[in-house]
From TrEMBL:
This is Carbohydrate ABC transporter permease. The keyword Protein transport does not apply. Its main location: membrane. Residues 1-28 are annotated as: Disordered. PANTHER family: ABC TRANSPORTER PERMEASE PROTEIN MG189-RELATED, ABC TRANSPORTER PERMEASE PROTEIN MG189-RELATED-RELATED.
Length: 319
């Protein structure tokens, strides 16, 4: 009895504060990092850390902002300074009139209006049709819904250039309707609707919506369409903002498809119009036009970057 009591006391006894832990006992308060806190606390370790950090940040800044800086400053230089080798880091003389000349000579106002018209038209079709497809696959669960979703996602594995020829032949002579859609906005709007990535994003977000909300709406007598309009869409603003940005930017940066389907100069987009007029203007004016064409998408990203990140991660966790 005495030996058993002694063993139990030893088992329940707490370790003294000065006792060293054995190598097998886990240290729950310790975290694994690239640089240990002890090394970071030393002057040499802290100096090396901040030097490496500054070099990495400077390198990424040069890689990402270097082309933008070259484009903006190139529009302020003369033609001789733009084409000289080696190039100059700063313009010797600033010529802001290059931007006004690019705006008038290349008729950028008309090209911007055409691009905005096509972009927001594609956005309207995607918000209506892609949301309906994602909602039906997520909540209505039709027959062979998983098969349909798998076939949609399989199209993401196909390069976009492979689909150019069949899409062009379809637009040239639409089946059943027997219509030629060249030089019409439908040639831009209809192919942009079939966006499997946006449908997948919307479906993932709709999957994270609690089923109890939809059941409560159904008990109140709401139809599936009313539930979508009054319950699902109001709480889906983050992902709808992400899809909207992707739709606008996708049309804005597209070049090959508008060049094939919009041969009329009066109906061309910004990228195609600048390309078609590039041979008749100096290099500095062309760079100024490219800078103006890049400003809207940069502003969209800078303004809505938080919405993009929150929308992309909104459907990742259920809670």
């Amino acid at each position: 009895m005495a030996s058993n009591t002694l063993v139990s006391r030893r088992a329940t006894a707490k370790p003294r504060p000065g006792r060293r832990r054995s190598g097998r006992e886990p240290d729950l308060g310790r975290q694994r990092t690239l640089i240990s806190p002890a090394q970071l606390g030393r002057p040499r370790g802290k100096a090396v850390y901040w030097i490496v950090f500054a070099l990495v940040v400077a390198g990424f800044t040069v890689v990402f902002l270097g082309p933008l800086y070259w484009m903006v400053t190139g529009g302020l230089k003369t033609t001789q300074e733009v084409v000289q080798s080696p190039p100059t880091a700063f313009p010797t003389s600033i010529h802001t009139e290059n931007y006004s000349q690019a705006w008038t000579v290349m008729d950028l106002s008309r090209l911007l209006f055409n691009t905005l018209y096509y972009a927001f038209g594609a956005l309207a079709f995607q918000l209506v049709l892609d949301v309906a497809a994602a909602y039906s696959l997520s909540k209505l669960r039709p027959v062979f819904g998983k098969v349909i979703l798998g076939m949609m996602l399989a199209t993401l594995m196909i390069p976009a250039t492979v689909l150019v020829v069949p899409q062009y032949l379809t637009v040239l002579d639409v089946p059943v309707f027997q219509r030629n859609l060249l030089n019409s906005p439908w040639a831009i709007w209809l192919p942009s609707v079939t966006n499997a990535f946006n449908i997948f994003l919307l479906k993932r977000f709709f999957d994270s919506i609690p089923r109890e909300l939809l059941d409560a709406a159904a008990i109140d007598g709401a139809s599936p369409l009313r539930t979508l309009r009054s319950v699902v869409l109001p709480i889906s603003r983050p992902i709808l903002g992400v899809v909207s940005i992707f739709a606008v930017v996708g049309v804005w940066k597209d070049f090959l498809w508008p060049m094939l389907t919009l041969p009329d100069p009066d109906k061309q987009t910004l990228n195609v119009g600048i390309y078609s007029l590039a041979s008749g203007v100096p290099e500095n004016v062309l760079i100024a036009a490219l800078t103006i064409a890049s400003v809207p998408t940069l502003l969209i990203f800078l303004i809505f970057q938080r919405n993009i990140m929150s929308g992309l991660t909104a459907g990742g966790l259920k809670g």
